[in-house]
UniProtKB/TrEMBL annotation:
This is PASTA domain-containing protein. Residues 39-104 are annotated as: Disordered. The lineage of its organism: Bacteria, Bacillati, Actinomycetota, Actinomycetes, Micrococcales. Residues 39-68 have a biased composition (Low complexity). Transmembrane segments: none annotated. It comes from the Bacteria. The keyword Ligase does not apply. Keywords: Signal. Residues 1-22 form the signal peptide.
Length: 149
């Protein structure tokens, strides 16, 4: 462990111990203890040095939003439900991209094991440009069943 990391770890440990003792005074009083810690760690080598962030150019508005990921919705009808979900995640470049599903027969069954279901319909048409805020839902039936017409 590097010297700087060790200092930070020790400081965090001391801060945690201080906070825990402040939460539960042993004498039963309601006194609050204040714990203050200062951590300053200078880089130990040129490799650890990082340039400071630069200011925005004059007149440029600061941006606080991350860029929006956009992709074309693939055709998932006929694929396994798990495969369709994996495909949307891969195409979106976001492993946390969430899709929904429901029982296409209308029986209200839950898709507990997605690998046992196949996609009959999708709420977003293939080729539609979508982003991470788009809600996608698949209508599915068990692998041994036919899709409703």
């Amino acid at each position: 462990m590097m010297k700087t990391q060790r200092k930070v770890l020790v400081a965090l440990t001391l801060m945690t111990a201080g906070l825990l003792s402040a939460c539960s005074p042993e004498d039963g009083s309601s006194a609050v203890k204040t714990v203050t810690a200062t951590v300053s760690a200078a880089p130990t080598s040129a490799e650890e040095s990082r340039p400071a962030p630069t200011a925005s150019p004059a007149g440029a508005a600061p941006t606080s939003e991350a860029p929006t990921v956009s992709f074309s919705m693939p055709n998932e009808v006929g694929k396994g439900l798990q495969e369709a979900q994996d495909d949307v995640q891969a195409k979106s470049g976001n492993p946390l991209f969430v899709t929904g599903s429901d029982d296409a027969t209308g029986a209200g069954r839950a898709q507990v094991l997605d690998r046992n279901w196949k996609v009959c319909s999708q709420s977003v048409a293939p080729g539609t440009a979508i982003n991470e805020d788009t809600r996608i839902s698949f209508g599915a039936v068990k692998l041994t069943e036919n899709c409703p017409s």
